[in-house]
Amino acid sequence: MNSHNSATAVSSELNSEVNEDKNALAVKANSIIKNILYLTLATSDSNNNPWNSPVYCAFDKSLDFFWMSASESQHAINIRNNGKAFGVIYDSSVPHGQGFGVYFNGVAVEYNADNIDKIKQGIEILGDRIDAAKRPTPEDYLAPNPRRVYGLHAHSFWVNVFVKQDGKYIDKRIDITKELKQEYAGASNKLLKLS
C-alpha cells in the first residue's frame, strides 16, 4: 500500500471510530463552557514566543468571551501587539483518559474608550455569571486605572474525542463550529449562567 492509500485508510478508520454525532458533542461542549469558569488563553509576543494565561471568563450568545486583566500583564501586551489568540476550556477534574475540552481560535481585543458598549457588556455578563450584586463602572477599566476589559471573538471550535488507530486510542479534534453556534442561536440568558 502506498503512503497516500495508507493515509486514506487511517483517516477512514479514525472517522469510523467517532461514535458521537456533532450535535451531541456540541451539547457536551456547551456544558463545559457553561460550567468551567476559567479559559486558558494562548497568545504570542512580538518575537513569536508563546504565552498561556488562565483567565476568569464569561461569554455572550455569539460565543464571544470576556475577561478583565491588568493592562501590563504579558497576555495584554501580546493582544495589543498581535490579536491572534487561542482558547481552551477543559475539564481536568475527571480520571485519566476521560478529559474533555473545547478549543477555539479567534481575535482578541483590548476594549478602550471607543468601545464603552463592549466594556459595559463585559462587566454585565461577568457579573451575571456569578450573580455579583456590586458592579464596577466602565471608567474603572479605562486609563489611568490599571485594568481593562478584553474580548475574544472566536472563529472556530473543536472538541477532543478518543478514537482507535491500529488498536491504540489516540486523541483527535472534531470541528463543531456550526453545531455549537446553533446551540446558542436564540439562547436565553439562563443558558449563559452556571448550572
CATH topology: Pnp Oxidase, Chain A
Q: Can you write the helix and strand succession as a string?
A: HHEEEEHEEHEEH
CATH superfamily: Electron Transport, Fmn-binding Protein, Chain A
CATH class: Mainly Beta
Shape: globular
The mean pLDDT is 86
CATH architecture title = Roll
Number of helices: 5
Report on this model:
The protein is an alpha+beta fold. The protein has a single domain, classed as Electron Transport, Fmn-binding Protein, Chain A (Pnp Oxidase, Chain A). Helices cover 30% and strands 35% of the residues. It is built from 5 helices and 8 strands, in the order H-H-E-E-E-E-H-E-E-H-E-E-H. The chain has helices at 3-17, 22-35, 74-81, 116-129, 177-184, and strands at 38-44, 50-56, 58-59, 64-70, 84-91, 100-110, 147-165, 168-175. Strands 1, 2, 3, 4, 5, 6, 7 and 8 form an 8-stranded antiparallel sheet that branches. Helix 2 crosses helix 5 (177-184). The protein is globular and about 60 Å long.
What labels would you give this structure?
alpha+beta; single chain; eight-stranded antiparallel sheet; 30% helix; Pnp Oxidase, Chain A; 195 residues
Chart the SSEs and their pairings.
Blueprint: H1 3-17, H2 22-35, E1 38-44, E2 50-56, E3 58-59, E4 64-70, H3 74-81, E5 84-91, E6 100-110, H4 116-129, E7 147-165, E8 168-175, H5 177-184
Helix pairs in contact: 2-5
